[in-house]
Automatic annotation (TrEMBL):
Its membrane topology: Multi-pass membrane protein
Record's protein name: cytochrome-c oxidase
SUPFAM superfamilies membership: Cytochrome c oxidase subunit III-like
E.C. number(s) listed in UniProt: 7.1.1.9
Keywords on record: Membrane, Translocase, Transmembrane, Transmembrane helix
Family matches, as Gene3D superfamilies: 1.10.287.70, Cytochrome c oxidase, subunit III, four-helix bundle
Organism for this UniProt entry: Roseomonas populi
Length: 289
């Protein structure tokens, strides 16, 4: 697993690396329209969700979503182009990017803490479940998944994907471009396989999201948002695969891939907690399939 090491190659100057275009090693952001466009698009997206939910008006949501996706594409395109400009992403700038990604993942950890908090609150204090006739968890009448069916298979898939992305990272560091591309392609394929199996699991779920009470709500929110993060991570790695095929990464300059690998390992670890806590520890009567 990649680590946040800022003591070796990150601060060691490469004699072949061109000097910074300024008299300092820090980054001066060029004027860009995308922060402003992204802000207005995000507000439109939020307002569109409200209009869709209360008045069944869809166009504002579509406009906001299109604006957000457009901003993401062009903003990140500019960042990729910027990384190729000689001397712009200095070692000091790359350290700042590493800390920024680490703090982003820390915020994602707290995001999932909220879902685990909700699950354990009701699991440890089932008498707090509104409308429950008996203080038990899962609530009476809820049948759960067999944890060693599809959930266990998905666990093995994600653990294997963690191995393949690490293989790709080490291959890149060692200058093995073919191994890096193979490892990334396998990781993307495993991510798609995981998402497909989770869709099958949801289709066969013995309880519904709406009207099923607190157990389906906490289950689908926790596992569903994790599934969303798997989709985001798969896209992240797919972009890295395309960039790797184009030759954008070198053994010393590949922070985009490194950030994707950190994110993917985070997704793996969250799933391990979900599997152990919700599928295994929180299991009740197993549903018949």
């Amino acid at each position: 697993m990649a680590t946040l090491d800022t003591t070796t190659a990150d601060i060691t100057l490469d004699p072949n690396e061109p000097p910074a275009p300024h008299k300092h090693p820090y980054h001066l952001v060029d004027p860009s329209p995308w922060p402003l466009v992204a802000s207005f698009s995000g507000a439109a997206l939020l307002f569109g969700i409200v209009l869709w939910s209360h008045y069944n008006i869809h166009w504002m949501f579509g406009l906001g979503l299109l604006g957000v996706l457009t901003s993401m594409y062009f903003w990140w395109r500019d960042v990729v182009r910027e990384s190729k400009q000689p001397g712009v992403h200095t070692p000091i700038v790359r350290i700042g990017m590493r800390y920024g990604m680490a703090l982003f993942i820390a915020s994602e950890v707290m995001f999932f803490v909220a879902f685990f908090w909700a699950f354990f609150h009701f699991a440890l204090y089932p008498e707090h479940v509104s409308g429950a006739t008996e203080a038990m968890w899962p609530p009476k009448g809820i049948h759960t998944f067999d944890p060693f069916g599809l959930p266990f298979l998905n666990t093995m898939i994600l653990l294997l994907s963690g191995c393949t992305v690490t293989w790709a990272h080490h291959a890149l560091i060692e200058g093995d471009r073919k191994g890096m591309l193979q490892g990334l392609a396998l990781t993307v394929g495993l991510g798609l396989f995981f998402t497909t199996l989770q869709a099958v699991e949801y289709a066969e779920a013995p309880f519904a999201f709406s009207g099923g009470g607190v157990y389906p709500s906490t289950f689908f929110l926790a596992t569903g948002f994790h599934g969303f993060h798997v989709i985001v991570g798969t896209i992240f790695l797919l972009v890295c695969l395309i960039r790797g095929w184009r030759g954008d990464f070198t053994p010393r300059r590949h922070f985009g891939f490194e950030a994707a690998a950190w994110y993917w390992h985070f997704v793996d670890v969250v799933w391990l907690f979900l599997f152990v806590c919700i599928y295994v520890w929180g299991a009740g009567p197993i549903a018949e399939h």
